[in-house]
Amino acid sequence: MKKIGLTTTVPIEVLLSAGYTPIDLNNIFVGSKDYSKYIDIAEKDGFPKSLCAWIKGIYGACISNDIKEIVGVHDGDCSNTKALTEVLSMKGIKVYPFSYPSSHNINDVKDELDAFMNLFHVTLNQVEKIRTRLNKLRELGIEIDKLTFEDNKATALENHIWQISFSDLNGDIDAFNSDLIKTIADIKKREASSSKLRLGYIGVPPMTPDIYEFVTNFDAKIVYNEVQREFAFPRSSKAKDIYEQYFDYTYPYDVYFRIDEISRQIEERHIDGIIHYTQAFCYRAVQDIVIKEKLRVPVINIEGDRLNHLDARTKLRLEAFLDMLLDSKEGIF
């Protein structure tokens, strides 16, 4: 199968129907032991220092991994993606555009998906057959999530890694399915381990995965990964078709739609506080104003840039936030 790069989660049902192997360039970039080389490639080719590290990392990952075709999401993700795809197109990479309509109207979503299917010459019937197959796999994503917040057996990092991997299924559906089944079986054998503080993580997946381990030093556990969970499409089996599934996908639409689902998860998972992660130079940082106003639990906003680990200042801020939550929970305030 031909490889096709992704700048973010897109309807992979269409790509799989067309005989492609989707490759999430974000996962290649952040998952690399030498991730900074991808940023360096972009800056060497003229990308400015004052641009989001994610965009530069995606560019470097695409150039370095022999990706000849990509899907670029021009509306509903990073505001810099269109410029990124223009540069990649200049480099000879074929770009297929896709957008999540800012109107968030079901008819507009249908039009975009129909155009995307036409672009790859596949039918709705073909796509729905793949969707049915993926829905069974996505049930495993729901299971590992419940093992995190209900059974307290899966770690927050495992929750993050497996759910984020649903964006491209690690490039192999069958292997991904087998690996996830084995992982779930192993996790179920563990003893439950609870923490005093239950945290939610919202915003784009972190450049700094050590955050999951760091919070455990304060008797805390992240039991909700907002965007990663959305990548796994936990409500897909309830959608009657692919149009409803991508209409219900919260990440690409307005912040109020996201907040509705975040609020439901805060209540269901008994979350004490929220860590809102944003990337430097990203417009989503402004949405923190709305998030802090609308959510009914304390929120801390932390910002990442080029580092793949928490810096000292961020650790101090997180420590103070978690101490405050613990004091509040124990009735000191």
Unreliable runs: none
Whole-number tally of structural domains: 2
Strand order of the largest sheet: 2-1-3-4
Helix content: 40-55%
Briefly, what is this?
By secondary structure, this protein is of the alpha/beta class. The protein has helices spanning about 10-15, 25-30, 35-45, 55-65, 80-90, 105-120, 125-150, 155-165, 175-190, 210-215, 225-230, 240-245, 255-270, 290-295, 310-330, and strands spanning about 1-5, 20-25, 70-75, 95-100, 195-205, 220-225, 275-280, 300-305. The protein is built from 15 helices and 8 strands.
Q: Can you give a write-up of this model?
A:
Helices cover 50% and strands 15% of the residues. It has 2 domains: 2-122, Rossmann fold, CATH 3.40.50.11890; 125-329, Rossmann fold (3-Layer(aba) Sandwich). The strands form 2 sheets. It has a 4-stranded parallel sheet with strand order 2-1-3-4. A 4-stranded parallel sheet has the order 6-5-7-8, with helices on both faces. The mean pLDDT is 95. It has 15 helices and 8 strands. It has helices spanning 12-17, 25-31, 36-44, 53-64, 81-90, 106-119, 124-149, 156-164, 173-188, 211-214, 226-231, 242-247, 255-269, 288-294, 312-329; strands at residues 2-6, 20-24, 69-75, 94-99, 197-203, 220-225, 273-279, 299-304. Strand 1 (2-6), helix 1 and strand 2 (20-24) form a beta-alpha-beta unit. The chain has 333 residues and is of the alpha/beta class. Helix 3 packs across helix 4, helix 7 runs antiparallel to helix 8 (156-164) and helix 7 (124-149) packs parallel to helix 9. This is Possible subunit of benzoyl-CoA reductase/2-hydroxyglutaryl-CoA dehydratase. One of its GO terms (molecular function) is iron-sulfur cluster binding. Belongs to the FldB/FldC dehydratase alpha/beta subunit family.
